[in-house]
Specification:
Blueprint (H helix, E strand, L loop, with lengths): L2 H37 L4 H16 L2 H12 L2 H5 L2 H26 L2 H9 L4 H31 L11 H10 L4 H36 L1
């Protein structure tokens, strides 16, 4: 095996890794948003259910979720599209953290903002859309982006269920005789190249949130 062949395989695997990353982030947002609504509900039952679900989602390691979904559910679609199991598993785990990000963002808005909105006779939808969310959104987005970096790194676990992602091709290259140190270093560099822009985005969003709080 030669380096051009290894790099070609890594590029192909990186595309699958990015599919898992994008799918996992989207699923995490779709699951985390209603979960946050449950945690913020006035109903004690919904709060308890949301809290129990959140603890279960993040209490089980991502690798166990992947194995549970892939081997436990035994769905035919996962045999044909194994990255679907990884997307579902990582989306479930990250959804619990997205839920916390949404709660933290909403809690960061001073309560006086809601009271001022009520004094102006604004309804709940208008209060949320015009007062609360514009201030909370930068914090929610920056925290969610930070968690998405963790999802990107956890996507390396997908290779345990024969997903042809970046690490799958790297392992194959090492087994094919390529030097382990250089090959795994190249894999780490590939993840770093993808993660760095996300890290800079988090810093920028955090700065924006501080500016928004000062203006508020």
């Amino acid at each position: 095996m030669t380096w051009p062949a290894v790099l070609c395989g890594m590029l192909s695997g990186l595309g699958v890794t990015l599919q898992i990353f994008a799918g996992g982030v989207i699923l995490a947002i779709l699951l985390g948003t209603p979960l946050a609504a449950m945690r913020l509900s006035r109903s004690r039952l919904l709060r308890f259910a949301g809290g129990a679900a959140s603890m279960t989602m993040r209490g089980i390691p991502p690798v166990v979720w992947i194995l549970l979904i892939y081997y436990g559910l035994k769905l035919e679609i996962f045999r044909e599209y194994p990255q679907g199991a990884a997307i579902l598993a990582l989306g479930i785990v990250t959804a619990a953290y997205v839920c916390d990000a949404i709660r933290a963002g909403l809690d960061s808005v001073p309560r006086g903002q809601s009271e001022a909105a009520k004094a102006l006779a604004l309804g709940w939808p208008s209060t949320m859309s015009q007062v609360i969310l514009p201030q909370a959104f930068p914090i929610i987005l920056s925290t969610t982006t930070a968690y998405s970096i963790t999802l990107l790194k956890n996507s390396a676990l997908a290779s345990i269920v024969a997903v042809a992602d970046l690490m799958f091709h790297v392992h194959a290259a090492v087994l094919g005789g390529m030097p382990p140190l250089a090959t795994y270093f190249a894999a780490g560099l590939a993840y770093l190249i993808v993660a760095l822009p996300l890290g800079f985005l988090v810093k920028w969003l955090e700065a924006r949130s501080v500016i928004a709080q000062v203006r508020a």
